[in-house]
Specification:
Elements: E1 2-4, H1 35-39, E2 48-51, E3 54-57, H2 63-81, E4 88-91, E5 96-99, E6 102-104, E7 108-111, E8 129-133, H3 138-152, E9 156-161, E10 165-170, E11 176-180, E12 183-185, E13 193-195, H4 196-199
């Protein structure tokens, strides 16, 4: 089923500084910080992002969120292992700079190229594909992050509803979506196929 959505939305992150970041449900507006200040925050395994000066921390993911994400990563890495060219499969928490002052941590991403082992700081290359598995704060993933990814030139964005649906956003401005329930394929990843019924199965034989 195809969906066409053109949205003009002001990128208003849900909460901000100071450290430690406030949970996504907070609507309190706080002073903005610079990208330099953000990068000087203590190292953390939490999913912490910067959007136009505001620091956003995602709540701890559920078990099922992590299980679905893990299965997607296994499928992507299996596909990448069969490729002749350089492909990087990344996962959160890993900073990716999509623009000045916009550092996000996609749940998973595909980058056509290699990242040096000694690389430090945010990844400066724009991934071809970003994946977000929905959890508590859906507006941030569905709208804010999609618009940031689109503005940066991400070719494709998968929004994964752990209950059993994947939205594959593509095209100019990531404005065209397919709602998929059985199988996920994409011309962006030739030869890649993901059985969605198996992906979301609570028992896998």
């Amino acid at each position: 089923m195809a969906i066409s959505m053109q949205a003009t939305v002001r990128l208003t992150p849900l909460h901000s500084w100071p450290y430690p970041p406030q949970p996504m449900r907070s609507a309190v507006q706080r002073p903005l910080i610079s990208e330099g200040d953000f990068l000087r925050l203590p190292e953390s395994t939490a999913k912490i992002e910067l959007v136009d000066g505001e620091v956003i921390e995602a709540p701890s993911p559920s078990y099922w969120h992590q299980e679905v994400l893990g299965r997607i990563l296994v499928a992507l890495r299996s596909w990448a292992a069969r490729r002749k060219g350089a492909v990087t499969i990344g996962q959160a928490p890993l900073d990716v700079r999509f623009a000045s002052g916009r550092i996000l941590q996609p749940d998973a991403f595909v980058l056509f190229g290699r990242i040096p082992r000694n690389h430090q700081g945010p990844i400066g290359c724009i991934p071809e594909l970003c994946v977000e598995v929905l959890s508590g704060e859906r507006l941030h993933d569905r709208v804010t992050k999609r618009l940031i990814y689109a503005a940066a030139g991400v070719a494709e964005y998968w929004v994964v509803e752990p209950a059993g649906v994947v939205e594959r956003w593509s095209g100019p401005g990531l404005a065209r979506a397919e709602e998929l329930r059985q199988r996920l394929t994409t011309p962006l990843l030739p030869g890649f196929t993901l059985d969605l019924r198996r992906l979301f199965a609570t028992k896998r034989g």
